[in-house]
Structure formats: C-alpha cells, structure tokens
Amino acid sequence: MSTSIESVMQETRVFPPSAAFVEQANVSGMAAYEAMCRAAEQDYEGYWAKLARENIVWHKPFSAVLDESNAPFFQWFADGELNVSYNCLDRHLATQADKTALIFEADDAKVTRVTYRELHARVCQFANALRSRNIKKGDRVVIYMPMSIEVIVAMQACARIGAIHSVVFGGFSSKSLNERIEDATACAVITADAQMRGGKVMPLKPVVDEALAMGGCDSVHSIIVYRRAGSEIFWNAKLDLWWHDLIAGQDTSCEPEWVNSEHPLFILYTSGSTGKPKGVQHSSGGYLLGAMVSMKWVFDYKPSDIFWCTADVGWVTGHSYVCYGPLAMGATQVVFEGIPTFPDAGRFWKMIQSHKVTTFYTAPTAIRSLIKLGGELPKQYDLSSLRLLGTVGEPINPEAWMWYYTVVGQSRCPIVDTWWQTETGCHMIAPLPGVVATKPGSCTLPLPGIMTAIVNEAGEAVPREQGGFLVITRPFPSQIRTIWGDPERYRKSYFPEDMRGAYLAGDSAQCDKDGYFWIMGRIDDVLKVSGHRLGTMEIESTLAANPLVAEAAVVGKPHEIKGEAIVAFVVLKGARPHDAAAVKQVAENLRAWVGEKIGPIAKPDEIRFGDNLPKTRSGKIMRRLLRTIARGDEITQDVSTLENPAILEQLKEVVR
Ligand code: PRX
Predict the structure, then answer these.
(1) Cα 192 to chain center, whole Å?
(2) Whose CA is nearest to atom 11 of ligand 1?
(3) DSSP assignments along 605-623, one per residue
(4) Helix or strand or coil: residue 229?
(5) Angle of the 174-184 helix axis to the 580-597 helix axis, nearest 10
(6) Secondary structure percentages of the chain, helix, strand, coil, to 5
(7) Which atom number of ligand 1 is nearest to the Cα of residue 532?
(8) 58-94, pLDDT tens digit by residue?
C-alpha cells in the first residue's frame, strides 16, 4: 500500500437533477434518501431483510438475516431458498409474458427480439439439455461465448439447475481459459464456433481446443458449441456437442433447483496483486438483491424503460446489469454483439435512436474514444428517448463527463457515475439520480445501507478533503463470499488486520466538503486499461516466462483514451538491443507473447529495455520510480537507497 495519498481534485461544477426528473424518480429528493440511510443505521438487518422480502420471490422464506459468526465469511438470508433464474423469468410469466426481454442486435445489425415467455422456454430447454449431460447443482460450467441471446440462456440455465457458471471474456487467450477451467475444475465448457466483431470472424472453439490441449482439464466431459459464424472447426466426437443437437427434443419447461441463499451463483475471475487471477465467488440471494435494488435506485428503473448496458457478460457489469438485474426487474434491454466503432463511430447513437433507449450505461473509455472519432456524430441522431446515462469501471475525467452530459444527454439526463467492483456485485457509491446533484468526476454518495469510509493505514477515519483507503465498514448482501478454493487469500486481500474488520476495496479516495466520494486510483498493483482490470504481476510473470526475458516490471501511465496504458521495463537474458529496429522487433515479439498468453487487452503499450531494474539494496524493485520514469516526469523521489542509480538514465531512454 502506498503511504501518503494526496488529492489534486479541483472540480467545482454541480448539476442538480431537473424538477421533472426528481418528481418521477423511484427515490425522490434528499429527504427520502436520508430516511433510507437512517433506517439502515437504526436497524441494519431489518432494513436489508425488508428489501429481500419485497424484491425476491423466496421458495422458502428466510428467518436468519446476517450471520457474522464466522467473519469475514458472512452469510445472508442463509436458511432461505430461492432460484435466481425463477426470479428472472418465471415470476414475470403471469404478468408480462409477452413483454420483450431482449432486443438483440448482431454485429451486422440484424435485430432479434425475445419475449419473457420465449426466453423462459429457451432457458428451460437448455437447462434440461445440461441436465441430460448429468450437469447438476454445484458443478462448475465455464462459458466462453460471444455477446448473444445464447450466452444469457446459458448463464440463466446454469442458475436454473444450480450449476455455478464461470464466464470467461471472449478476448482471453487459451492459456487464461485453461487456468480458469483448471482452477474451477469445470465439468463443461459452453462456447461458440466463433464470434463476430466489427465484421471480422474471431475464433472461439479453436481457443477452447487449445486450452484443453494444454492439460489439467480432465474434469471437462462436455463441450457445447453454439453455431454462430458457420466456421469450419475441429470436432472431437468424445467431448464436443452442438448446442442445437443437444436442445433438440428437450422440454421447454424445467423445474428449477431450489438452492439456499448462500449457494454460489457464479465465480468470476479477476486480477489482483499476485500473478494468479482470483475466482470471486458470489452468492444467490444476496447478490440478486444487490442487482435488483441498484436497478431501482441508481437506474431509476421503470417498466417502460429500454435499458442498455454495453458491457460484455465476461465482466461483472455484464453479469449484474445484463444477465441478472434487468431480467429480475422484468426490463426490456438491448444486447449488442458488436463494437462501438463498426461500421462507424455512430453505432451506439444509431442504436439508441432505433431502439428508443432510455437508459444507457457504458465505460469512460468508450466515451473518450467516441469523442475522438466523432465528437459531433451524436448530433446526427435522435437521442430524445434517453432519460438517464451511466458510467462504470474507471474514473471519468470531467471533460468526457461534460461531453456525455451535453452532447449525448443534451443537458437533460442525469449521469450516474457508479463505483463498484467485481467483488461488490453491484453499485456501492453512485448518485441516486432523483436525489443527488452530480459533480463531474465524482461517484458522489453511497447507496442507502452501504456503509463506506475513508481511512488511514491504521484503519482510522480521515477528515474530509484528505485522501485515504476506501473501505466498507459493514458486510452487505451482494459482496464476495470467498475466493474460489483460496479462503485465506480472500481474508488477506479484503480483510487485512489493520482495517479492523472493514472490507478493503483496494482503491484510494477522498471525500470533499459535501461528503462526495472521489476515487483516486488503486492502492495495489492493479491497472485499469480501457476499464479492464489487469494485474501488473500477471503481465510481469508472463513476460518473465518468455525464454528471452530475465526480469520484467510493469507499471501504468496515464493514457488519454484508455485511462491507463501498460509500460513494461524488461531485462533480457542476452544483450540489450540498441538500434531502433532491433528494439522494435523484440518489443513486438514480447507484445505478441503477452497477447497469446493472457489476451490482446494485456499487451504492453510500451516496452523499455535495461541492463537491470532499479532496486533497493534489499532487492525490491522500486516501482514508484518506474512509474515516474514511464510518465516522463522529473524524478523527485529519494534514490539514495537505490542499489544501481546509473540504471535510471538508461530506462528513461525511449527508442522509437
Ligand atoms: O478502481 C476501481 C475501478 O474499477 C475497480 C473495479 O474493477 P472491476 O472489478 O473490473 O469492476 C469494474 C466494474 C464494476 C475499482 O476498484 N472503478 C470502478 N468503477 C469506478 C472505478 N473507478 C472510478 N470510478 C468508478 N465509477
């Protein structure tokens, strides 16, 4: 952890919601918000229990609310029984079976609509298909698929039979997939022949074949392949099954598996401070509750909304705000297969116009790149259907916020800047749009019932306008339950002793004089590159595994569009390349290597070569120094403890 955290925030603009928005909001006005916060403070368990009873259809009601006896392994509503897929589908059949659940727009702009009745039938059919492969409650199923109706069907079908899904983002490499299959000892992989992105066919099944060929995946007995692109693929008759063959003849009703509230709904791997990704394990009841209340409060969800979250289901945002939250609320939502820049940078705006989207939720990186590629483009489309905008995944700079607000939202739509994490399952700090006046770049105030604080290294609260570690002081329903297979890492990562029992988020932040939260960045070795979470250690150990590399250190530096860029400092086993052509060649090889081992999103933007790395006499790499060098800033740190000061000049040199 870094020691002193100083704030450089200077933003002073404030944007209150319009009277018209406040009037219609689910939570309307500060007094209503404060009353909810008070209710949570006065009777914490009673507050959450009431919400859990109001929002979730329980098969068996719970009597216990929060069990802290085995902290930090908290349990919520533990003796209650439910099924998450029942809560997302069956509950709507009596009231709105013919409402559109999904408006799926493919890469080539073909649109397919699916009603709740149809989605229910498809999920049941696929759930029966999974059961026909003897996949049952508690089994792990890896999903490696494109954005599609089928991926939602696959996730919901797992939930229906109590199987635990682990979705792996389609951009991850075979090695990453292999590690995740092995760590979860998955019994099945659901994939597609390929995915379509920006008019290109990108293989998926061949990546699964490679992953299995790497070994350690003997637990897998079925690979289910959805035919998306019609690509030629290798077929292993022992393992491989076509999706369409498997569902043929399966019944379109399927009794859900009633599970208890703490039954794991899914595992989702994310990066941490070590080289090995962590399998974040979520519960059923508590997670679902978080997804639902945040839909109501933060997205001010109304049955007439057309909701669109652009995140891929490979990330937590796509779990909570594509697969689970909107369906549990009975929403109509847009699901998009493609990319924002194909066929041109107007794609998002065109889709908002054609589907009459009311609520649009995307990442700051996407906003920044669309400003760059066509800042005037939104003006060519009718965006009058929009009533609310949201951002997620990384800090948004005030300039991008202002553009989003004025050009996309036409100064009419509140922006909800939502701070949360894979581990928190749903929004933690975000403006309730009918309550909070927003400030560009601030995620504002915690959700009612979420007890946040900013503390120093000793876990003591710091005064306002002073930076510190962001913590959540009380357990909350949607939080991570453990790291799959590694409870000790869970305890150490999130509940270190100095934090006095609070959940340590891993971010630094400060509160301004109005109590608004401003996220300043990570306190650990985690980068946010285009909103994707990457561990510097993961990239370092991948580089170090290359036969040419003796040692590597990876740091982030600010990037205009991606938020952060990856800079790698590398020491080769042989001689350091000197001329520009040789440097370029080796750097390209190493970039390709990282792309192959982790995925293209982890490729370093810049690689610098040195004869060694700056280290203290005790052998610790001085990363702060490397960060300064990567940014091209003047070195003001104390370098007196440096073993090899001469190395600094060498590393400053950028060969282009
Ligand atoms: O550093 C924070 C940043 O993203 C981290 C969580 O990443 P991940 O688990 O991939 O989840 C992303 C989607 C919820 C956080 O620790 N982060 C997330 N949202 C924001 C943010 N930083 C600033 N502002 C946000 N709104």
Answers:
(1) 22
(2) 421
(3) SEEEE-SS--BBTTS-B-H
(4) coil
(5) 30
(6) 35, 25, 45
(7) 10
(8) 999 999 999 999 999 999 999 999 999 999 999 999 9
